[in-house]
Write a structure and sequence with these properties.
Structural class of chain A: mainly alpha
Order of helices and strands of chain A: HHHHHHHHH
Helix content of chain B: 25-40%
Largest sheet of chain A: none
Strand content of chain A: under 5%
Oligomer: heterodimer
Radius of gyration of chain B: 18 Å
Strand order of the largest sheet of chain B: 5-6-7-3-8-9
Mean pLDDT of chain B: 92
Number of strands of chain B: 9
Order of helices and strands of chain B: EEEHEEHHHHEHEHEEH
Number of strands of chain A: 0
Radius of gyration of chain A: 22 Å
Strand content of chain B: 25-35%
Largest interface: A-B, 33 and 38 residues
Helix content of chain A: over 70%
Low-confidence stretches of chain A: 1-10
Number of helices of chain A: 9
Largest sheet of chain B: 6 strands, mixed
Mean pLDDT of chain A: 84
């Protein structure tokens, strides 16, 4: 019995080296970031305690909003691609729904919930959900037919199909959609908090603007962007790199 | 499903509705696959051979006709490997076993056996991206064998490979067939390949796919691809296409 091997050890070694290099770069980056944060915090340009408290309460809103949006997006995408009939009804509806100006929702939410953090969270859900939903729908519709057939032939049906085939296959699209949705959420957050009069970094920066504290506002916005950048580096970039193993060749 | 009776395809036809017209892909296809037989379906591209294999696999319903005695445990090897990129070699091979709900020990034992058979020891934790084409197809074959199928369906398993790798894998497929005595139905567009491997060659015409002729290959095994008799049979099959 002859079995020939085509061995690619160099490929594997190069990948390991690149991964180690990435880890060192990430660690170096985190140290630099922490140093900058420490130096900035020691300056008296801003009330840093207030700034960080408000930033983390906004982060809380974004995280909760993201998780709710992500779950709903997965459900919507799976429903919309279940069969042709549902797709023909649901996708046009979703297309119209995503065009709805989300800021117009805030007054309605204020009437329903009052001045409440949930107003911002629901607003963020509506902002984040669309990029994730449509990237997932595109991914499901462009799935590799032979992978789908292999999953069927080898017994992936029902919940097993969802867990062992559909969700892993959707994962790269899920991360891409999440990155877009997350970015849109931070962009919209400031306006949402100001309009809804809810405490958070957006409201805090808004107040600085109203008071004419230009220097503090510039520093505050810079730190705001910097912290979002840091979050992207430690959460989304590693996830994006990890998701490459899920991608079809 | 009874695995001891021959698999019979009875007047299988398939058409697809395209903008009000019927696109006929297969018409009135009938043949038999006996237990332990190696059957090659040969024909030019677009002849419905892959569609026929998918009807056998149960993932496409025929528009007319039926299949009798088709086992439910079947393995399928794809032209472009169809390995799940997020799974390792081990996990890909174990996929069918995991779906069947086997316990971890049984899965480990079966996967180990198949990894040894295909000669990929040491690559169990590799992902498909890290493998060559030949290695990927070996994993595809191992995945099919791991579930201990009663019949193996191979859809042009060597067409995506270079000639040297294809030659080696062809020999391995033959070796696996001789070891396991499984019924194999293989689609190929290479006549020499069909003559080298098959006991029965189903020659199909295309558009729509019809059985043109069924040829019993009586060349003795192991088959020498350089004999007069081999070339004579190749010419006979090619003359029908």
């Amino acid at each position: 019995m002859r079995f020939s091997h085509v061995i690619h050890p160099n490929g594997t070694i190069r990948q390991r080296r690149n991964r180690r290099k990435q880890r060192w770069l990430s660690l170096g980056f985190i140290i630099i970031v922490l140093t900058i944060l420490l130096i900035a915090t020691r300056s008296n340009t801003l009330n840093w305690y207030e700034f960080y408290t408000f930033f983390f309460s906004s982060l809380f809103s974004v995280v909760i909003g993201y998780f709710i949006a992500a779950l709903l997006a997965v459900i919507l995408a799976l429903a919309a691609t279940k069969n042709k009939f549902i797709e023909n009804i649901l996708v046009p509806f979703l297309d119209v729904a995503q065009s709805f100006p989300t800021f117009a929702l805030i007054p309605v939410l204020l009437v329903l919930f009052g001045t409440n953090r949930w107003v911002v969270i629901i607003f963020l859900v509506v902002t984040i959900i669309w990029p994730i939903t449509f990237t997932l729908i595109a991914a499901i519709k462009s799935e590799r037919e032979d992978l789908s057939e292999a999953a069927t032939i080898y017994g992936a049906h029902g919940i097993k199909r969802l867990r062992y085939y559909r969700l892993p296959d959707m994962f790269p699209a899920f991360i891409t959609g999440s990155i877009i949705g997350w970015g849109e959420a931070w962009e919209a957050l400031i306006g949402a908090e100001i309009i809804a009069k809810v405490t958070g970094v957006g409201a805090y920066l808004g107040k600085l603007g109203e008071n004419g504290s230009v220097a503090q506002l510039i520093v505050g916005i810079t730190m705001y962007l910097f912290l979002i950048f840091v979050l992207n580096e430690i959460i989304w970039i590693p996830l994006l790199n990890y998701s490459s193993r899920y991608q079809n060749e | 499903m009874n695995s001891k009776k021959p698999i019979q395809l009875l007047r299988i036809s398939k058409w697809f509705d395209e903008k009000g017209d019927k696109l006929r892909v297969l018409e009135d296809v009938s043949f038999t696959v006996h237990l332990g037989e190696f059957v090659c379906i040969v024909g030019s591209s677009g002849g419905g051979k892959s569609t026929l294999l998918r009807i056998l696999a149960g993932i496409i319903e025929p528009s007319e006709g039926r299949i009798i005695n088709m086992p439910t445990e079947l393995g399928f090897v794809f032209q472009n490997f169809a390995l799940f990129p997020w799974l390792t070699v081990h996990e890909n091979i174990a996929f069918g076993l995991t779906m069947a709900g086997l316990d971890k020990k049984q899965i480990e034992a079966r996967v180990k056996e198949e990894v040894k058979r295909i000669g990929l020891q040491g690559f169990e934790q590799s992902h498909p991206k890290e493998l060559s084409g030949g290695m990927k197809q070996r994993v595809g074959i191992a995945r099919a064998l791991a579930i201990q199928p009663q019949v193996l369906l191979l859809d042009e398993p060597l067409s995506a490979l270079d000639e040297i790798t294809a030659k080696n894998l062809r020999a391995d497929i033959l070796s696996i067939w001789q070891q396991t005595h499984k019924s194999i139905v293989m689609v190929t567009h290479l006549v020499e390949e069909a003559v080298q491997l098959a006991d029965t060659i189903v020659v199909m015409s295309s558009r729509p796919g019809r059985v043109h002729k069924i040829i019993k290959n009586t060349l003795p095994r192991p088959r020498d691809t350089r004999t007069k008799e081999f070339f004579k049979l190749v010419d006979e099959v090619e003359g029908l296409l």
